[in-house]
Amino acid sequence: MSSSKSSNVIDGKAVAAAVIKECLTEVDALRRHNVVPGLAVVLVGEDPASKVYVGAKARTCLELGIYSRKIELPAETTQEELIGVVHDLNRDPAIHGILVQSPPPKHIDEEAVIRAIDPRKDVDGFHPENVAKLALEDPTGFVPCTPAGCLRLLKAAGISTTGADAVVIGRSMIVGKPMAFLLMAKGTDATVTIAHSRSTDLPGICRRADILIAAVGRPEMVKADWVKDGAVVIDVGINRVDDPSTKKGYRLVGDVAYDEVAPKCRAITPVPGGVGPMTIALLMKNTLQAARQQTRVV
Amino acid sequence: MSSSKSSNVIDGKAVAAAVIKECLTEVDALRRHNVVPGLAVVLVGEDPASKVYVGAKARTCLELGIYSRKIELPAETTQEELIGVVHDLNRDPAIHGILVQSPPPKHIDEEAVIRAIDPRKDVDGFHPENVAKLALEDPTGFVPCTPAGCLRLLKAAGISTTGADAVVIGRSMIVGKPMAFLLMAKGTDATVTIAHSRSTDLPGICRRADILIAAVGRPEMVKADWVKDGAVVIDVGINRVDDPSTKKGYRLVGDVAYDEVAPKCRAITPVPGGVGPMTIALLMKNTLQAARQQTRVV
């Protein structure tokens, strides 16, 4: 099995590196017009996982020559203060993209904060204006990074989507719904099924899929008998499970029971090293799109 | 067969009449606060079908005690002039709902006109802000009338949607996509598949459906062997087909081959008399929602 396993793995790190390489060219083009693209990341509180993500985003900016501003606010920051910070960034011409790291502390209304971001700087693609643009297939909007990364992985792996049966498990606005929009859009043209926790016979629905996207956040939920032979599986889940044999006491697994599912697949993304690296790469892409749209130089 | 046919028919006229009755109560409640709800319908040009629709909307307003203003503009009206009319209506406190009858003449950019409507008065639910609210399951938005009518028909017929396999044929922003949002939303909880012209094996996909919504605009495309025994079929299509035996020289048929499909169905909507009457009834509902939200009296 190990040979079939290695040949069908979609290498997210390699595809992300290719996206980053495209970004380098785009940064150069902006620089030739004296534009330095800028990304602001706002972090409220001390969530350790959030700190890791924010650090990774800043490092990737540095690597690319994107100006990055990290704004760390105490956990007690009020919603008004946070929205004030966002408004300042909306007005700041050095900043083309704004991201407020999720999740904020519980006293903050995350939706209100997202609405406060200028939609032209909303590189996460969560502002209602960008949600509508995605539904309306308007390419001037920002597509959320994770589903955009999934689509890019399919393309990089040479998977044809036209007329394919795609099943998305999960109906969140972060992944499930935008993934469905992207897959059904003209030019991509998949037949899309959105399944979720209330679906009857989830295994049976998943078995129909030529392309299966798992985005539920439940460790190793998708078993071998949920997957059709020759299917393509994209695993968005990143779940910590206890593992005393490791130094950290846990390991990361996806929503897919990889070891038993992988041998059946035409192609599959691993966790880690699949969708994860794509999310940051697509955030950089969105930041450069924002810089181009705001400066109109390229 | 005729007895099974009559017992499984979802009577759109009767359900629409029940919605209109609810509207009467809502109009009364607004009146007690000295609010007369108002709907403006703008028609550009002389399209005969559009004139029929606009006339029907005005009559239903009259019946309900909703103030209705019909604005007929010549086919040569420029986009700037039309947007000027919309802006006037946006500012007019007697008008709570604005609808620009589709399709406008070809020189008009329909999307730009929709964007010009104040989203709080956009009772068609086509403005990007309302598209986003539907995707985000925000109940303050306006849901497009036809898919809202389809959902209401399912409820009136006692069809349970939770966990059901729903297949929507068609991915338009008028019906297909909003229908999919409504069916997958929390509380409705169907598993939703959006199929379309590029789908491989459309008949096979439709055969999976517990609930099949046809919104493609192709006369009698859905045949008996596309439909599972006991399925519920909602036919959104209204297509004219030549028929020299009729006085008008044509007859109206849906997207479903009714005579052969109906005997297999648990429930089915006819054409005419199914979805059609619901669209105007839901437009009235949206107008009353708009009046309540703008006046905050009820």
Structural overview:
The structure is a homodimer of 298-residue chains. Chain A is of the alpha/beta class and 298 residues long. Chain A is built from eleven helices and ten strands. The first copy, chain A, has helices spanning 2-7, 12-32, 48-64, 79-91, 110-116, 128-135, 145-156, 176-184, 202-207, 258-261, 276-295, and strands at 38-44, 67-73, 97-100, 165-169, 191-195, 211-214, 232-235, 239-242, 250-253, 267-268. In chain A, the strands form three sheets. A five-stranded parallel β-sheet of chain A has the order 5-4-6-7-10. A three-stranded parallel β-sheet of chain A has the order 2-1-3, sandwiched between helices. In chain A, helix 3 links the parallel strand 1 (38-44) and strand 2 (67-73). In chain A, helix 7 (145-156) crosses helix 11. Chain A is globular, with a radius of gyration of 19 Å. Chain A starts with a helix and ends with a helix. In chain A, 49% of the residues are buried. The A-B interface holds A 128-129, 131-133, 135-136, 162-165, 171, 173, 177, 180, 184, 189, 191-196, 198-200, 205, 208 and B 128-129, 131-133, 135-136, 162-165, 171, 173, 177, 180, 184, 189, 191-196, 198-200, 205, 208. Strand 5 (191-195) of chain A pairs antiparallel with strand 5 (191-195) of chain B.
